[in-house]
Specification:
about 20% strand; single chain; eight-stranded mixed β-sheet; 10 strands; 11 helices; 2 domains; about 300 residues; alpha/beta
Length: about 300
């Protein structure tokens, strides 16, 4: 490359002055080049000694790492626990339903689990959710457990089908989850890898079924653990009236509950969770649930809006 012979250009780049030093004194050459091309950097390097410069660089690096950590997205998926007290003609104070769908020992055909609008079937058929793992006859109390995963957000939902005759135990467990005092460790396998959810991992907890608090009370209801506040969705008849005190004792936030008799079917739950996953407002979530209920129950939107409530 040929350099310009123009005097202004020679002064601009100072080629003659640097060319000799580049070969004989490269350190001085670099320092002079930096002072000319990057005056701000040169000023900083002149202000501090070598040790001080090293300390400044280390501090800046640590500060960058700290800021990156604080603002890094939380990759841990949000967790929803769903407890379904299976419909049971024999043990629950409900208006009897056909025997096949009202057997609290048969989750596959149960109104709240295996039927078309039951939690298992409805979410299994939804394109938004995938079944990660199914546990048959999970325990003496839980007849089936299904781990679902939301395909877009990665949200995990653990749904349990409780034996209908154990509705009181199911209700108490639900309140323990809300309070953060349950001690269950949940393990499952996804894509060949074992995963574990420790006690208190739930961000939201859902109850689906008959409102057992119409028939019994919970002695010494669980009290909040003083840590995370969990959001409660209770799809049961007049749940705001009957669950209000125990939910407050559990320290939970009532995201969605009901004011009157209702059908606790999964379309209302999915609509509410769609809004919850999108971080919509409580009122938007209520409206979603009401719209779904109005559609499937063929009732007016205003009636469905009156049925669902949020907050105390």
């Amino acid at each position: 490359m040929a350099f310009s012979t123009d005097e202004n250009e020679r002064k601009k780049y100072a080629i003659p002055m640097y060319e000799k030093r580049r070969k004989t004194d490269p350190i001085r050459y670099c320092n002079e080049l930096i002072r000319k091309r990057f005056p701000v950097v040169a000023m900083v390097t002149q202000m501090y000694s070598l040790h001080q410069r090293i300390a400044v660089v280390l501090f800046a690096s640590l500060l960058f790492l700290f800021i990156s950590f604080v603002h890094a997205p939380n990759n841990e998926p949000r967790v929803i626990r769903v407890l379904v007290a299976l419909c049971d003609n024999e043990s629950q104070g409900i208006v009897p339903v056909p025997k096949k769908i009202g057997n609290g020992n048969d989750p596959a055909n149960n109104l709240y689990w295996g039927c078309a609008y039951g939690v298992k079937t409805y979410f299994s058929n939804s394109p938004d959710w995938e079944v990660v793992q199914t546990f048959k006859t999970f325990s003496d109390q839980i007849l089936e457990r299904i781990v679902f995963r939301h395909r877009v957000s990665g949200t995990l939902m653990i749904a349990d089908a409780w034996k209908g005759s154990l509705i009181k135990s199911c209700t108490k467990k639900y309140l323990q989850i809300l309070a953060g005092t349950e001690n269950d460790t949940i393990r499952f396998t996804r894509n060949g890898n074992s995963e574990t959810l420790h006690p208190g991992a739930a961000h939201a907890a859902v109850y689906v079924g008959h409102d057992g608090l119409m028939d019994f009370s919970i002695e010494s209801p669980p009290q909040h653990d003083g840590r995370s506040v969990r959001e409660a969705i209770i799809l049961a008849c007049a749940s705001k009236i009957y669950f209000k005190d125990v939910v407050k004792t559990a320290g939970a936030k009532p995201l969605l509950w009901t004011t009157n008799l209702m059908a606790p079917e999964a379309y209302s739950l999915k609509a509410a969770l769609d809004g919850w996953i999108r971080s919509e407002s409580d009122e938007q979530i209520r409206q979603r649930a009401a719209a779904a209920y109005s559609k499937y129950q063929h009732c007016s939107m205003s009636a469905a809006q009156r049925l669902f409530a949020t907050g105390y």
